[in-house]
Amino acid sequence: MVNRNGGRDVPLFCELTKRRIKMDIKRLPKTEFAAAVAQIAGERDIDPQEIIDAIELGLISAYKRDQKEHGIILPEEDVYEVELTPASGSFLIFKIDGKNRVDVTPPGFGRIAAMTAKQVIDQKIREAERDTVIAEYARKIGTLVSGVVLHIDGYKASIGIGKTEAVCPKDEQIRNENLELGSKKLFLLQSIIEDETGRKEIILSRRDPEFIKQLFAREVPEVGNRTVVIERVARSSGERTKIAVSSSQPGVDPVGSCIGQKGSRIQAVLGELPSDEKVDVVAFSKNIQQFIVNALSPAVDVKVVSVKDGYAIVDVPESQLALAIGSGGENVRLAGILCNLEIKVQGAK
Fold it and tell me: Could you list the pLDDT tens digit for every one of the 349 residues in the chain?
């Protein structure tokens, strides 16, 4: 077929080998071109129309490049359309000038156009394929995913998850935990963000308190089915975590359920954390004084003197002071976060 400028229309993708087609594209005629589009769509789980759109963008890009190589700089504001014939894969390029469509397909344009278009098409297909993967992971936000550490720099770690890569920023990594290349870790799929270029990125975390919740949901069936509820979490990643749990079913011990027989369940959780991080499981209580006592575990014989205006004073025996306060004040600080109070610990008189 010859276009109005004397050049031949270009059949695309005719070199592709036909294999089993997974996606039905009834709107395209059953031709070699349609079979090639169907092949790509089926193998990569992409809407066939996205491929057609990518082809058209690729052809316009090829046309602009061809004109530039011939010393013709096209104004940025010029608008072009592609008239693509799905039955054959042939095309014409039109410049839109008001209400007029002018055929500008250059003579002898075919081979250059096909090569340049293929590069753009491949890129668009990769982007569409990634969008499909991103959509799949968008449904998993707030859950755990297993990933392999692929690359580490001062700002982030690149993590391989399934068919794609995600990012674990430095401030979402556990403090003082050294991620090793090639190591396999669990991560919380925290969010999906979009940068200024429109590229979407999967963000992972090992530092988010929700990571601890999901670890318990994974290891403790009662948490998974919500017989045991994790009411609150206070975490200093890499050092200490406190969780407050309650039971929605009479007769179920929420703390014992999380600990497990001979500590088996809590040990499974600890196995996913740095060796230095401790996890305290305490009983949640609506009675704030009782909750303060529980939250200051492992200290015992704690007595609450007063609770007022977001501030609590507690007496602790001298033998329990170190446990109540914790290394660097960590235990009392996390207990305060758990109870939503500032807690002052003093020696019992």
Answer: 334 343 444 444 433 323 222 333 344 445 566 777 777 777 777 777 877 788 788 888 888 888 888 888 888 888 998 887 666 666 788 999 888 889 988 887 767 666 766 777 777 778 777 888 888 999 999 999 999 999 998 889 999 998 889 999 999 999 888 899 999 999 999 999 988 777 889 999 999 999 999 999 999 999 999 999 999 999 999 999 999 999 989 999 999 999 999 999 999 999 999 988 999 999 999 999 999 999 999 999 999 999 999 999 999 999 999 999 999 999 999 999 999 999 999 987 6
The SS3 call for residue 240 is: strand
Q: Which CATH number, 3.30.300.20, 1.10.10.10, 3.90.1150.10, 2.30.42.10, labels domain 209-347?
A: 3.30.300.20
CA 349 from chain centre, in angstroms, equals 53
Q: Which helix (H) or strand (E) holds 68?
A: helix 48-69
Task: Spell out the residues 6+ positions from residue 180 whose beta carbon is closer than 8 angstroms to its own.
Answer: 149
Q: Which positions ≥6 away from 246 have C-beta within 8 Å? A: 228, 229, 231, 254, 283, 284
CATH 3.30.300.20 range(s) for the chain read 209-347
Structure tokens belonging to residue 17: 């080998």
**What architecture (CATH level 2) is domain 32-136?**
2-Layer Sandwich (3.30)
Q: Which CATH number fits domain 146-205: 2.60.40.180, 2.120.10.10, 2.40.370.10, 2.40.50.140?
A: 2.40.50.140
Radius of gyration of the chain (CA): 31
